[in-house]
Design goal:
Elements: H1 5-21, E1 27-30, E2 37-39, H2 46-53, E3 77-83, H3 85-90, E4 92-103, E5 119-120, E6 129-134, E7 137-142, E8 151-152, E9 165-176, E10 185-188, E11 204-210, E12 217-219, E13 222-229, H4 231-236, E14 238-244, E15 247-253, E16 262-265, E17 281-287, H5 295-307
Parallel strand pairs: 3-11, 13-17
Antiparallel strand pairs: 1-4, 2-3, 4-9, 5-8, 6-7, 10-11, 12-13, 14-15, 16-17
């Protein structure tokens, strides 16, 4: 047993956390100023509680439940990474720092000191739970002797204090596919918390947070951009250039175009995550009115006004 009282308290507290947590993950941070990571496998409903202990309705008795001493899958983790808009569009490889539980190398995850072994819990016969009759129902309860593990470690490992896992900081690089959206989830199988007693590791779920672009707004796989045009360009028609993700493209503004008209340029939008190409660029015409006019411009507009006999407000009174 652990002779140091402080180590003993830490070991007991950690064992209690492991018994209640259900998984073996930890926390982490994402690249580019990303947020924290989350992990956890709580009970979703009463069915989950019964399945954890293997209990069911009917039947009484002290001992009961399904064994929990076998391999157990590790905890899934989540981490957020923050990307610039350009990174999300072109794809990027970002660093992610994780603090996660990994199997202790000294005891190979058993929690027992090398050369010693854990023994089967005699209170629950290795099931990890006992049951009690309450009002005709058989209610499972964590075994008080082994804390739900099914086995008892009498001589804990001095490196992990009987936990079977150690907290390790890992720095990995995650490939973000081109076209990632805000909230895109990327699963890295087996990169989560370590499994228990030889169980498989959990998965790491990377969630992207994409910063807004000063030029483009995203709508699905399409990108929208406001294109300022002059009164003359809108009235007479013109060919103007607009920026794209990879440069610029010339578009034709039809004569008589109204403010807010949208022109579609196929294949110049955001990359599709399935690799099937790009969405469209939606160029929205924004009519610009000069804040000041030269004398010549004023004379020209007055002459145009005298020639223009249309009434844009006529429909208001029809």
């Amino acid at each position: 047993m652990l002779s140091d009282p402080e180590k003993r308290r830490e070991y007991d507290a950690e064992q209690q956390m492991l018994r209640m947590g259900g998984g073996y993950g930890y926390a982490g941070t994402g690249g580019g100023g990303g947020g924290g990571a989350r992990g956890g496998q709580g009970f979703g409903d009463f069915g989950d509680i019964f399945s954890m202990f293997g209990g069911g309705g009917g039947g009484g008795g002290r001992r009961g439940g399904q064994a929990r001493s076998g391999p157990r899958r590790g905890q899934d983790l989540e981490v957020e990474v923050t990307l610039a808009f350009d990174q999300a569009m072109s794809g990027a490889e970002v660093p992610v720092t994780l603090e996660r539980h990994e199997a202790c190398g000294t005891c190979a995850g058993s929690g027992a000191k090398p050369g010693s072994t854990s023994r089967l819990c005699t209170t629950c016969d290795g099931r990890g739970s006992v049951t009690h009759d309450v009002g005709g129902f058989s209610i499972p309860e964590e075994c008080p002797s082994c804390g739900g593990q099914g086995t008892v470690v009498e001589d804990p490992c001095s490196d992990c204090y009987g936990r079977g896992t150690r907290t390790v900081e890992r720095r990995i690089r995650v490939r973000i596919p081109a076209g990632a959206k805000d909230g895109t989830r990327i699963k890295l199988k087996g990169k989560g918390g370590a499994g228990m007693r030889g169980g498989p590791a959990g998965d790491l779920h990377v969630i992207t947070r994409v910063m807004p672009s000063p030029l483009f707004k995203r709508k699905g796989d399409d990108l929208t951009i406001e294109v300022p045009v002059t009164f003359a360009e809108a009235a007479l028609g013109a060919k103007v250039e607009v920026p794209t993700l990879d440069g610029r493209v010339a578009i034709t503004v039809p004569a008589g175009s109204q403010d807010g008209r949208t022109l579609r340029v196929p294949g110049k939008g955001a990359p599709k995550l399935d690799g099937s190409g790009n969405g469209s660029l939606l160029a929205k015409i924004k009519l610009t009115i000069p804040s000041s006019l030269s004398d010549e411009q004023q004379e020209a507009l007055k002459a145009f006004s005298e020639l223009d006999t249309s009434d844009p407000r006529a429909r208001l009174f029809s």
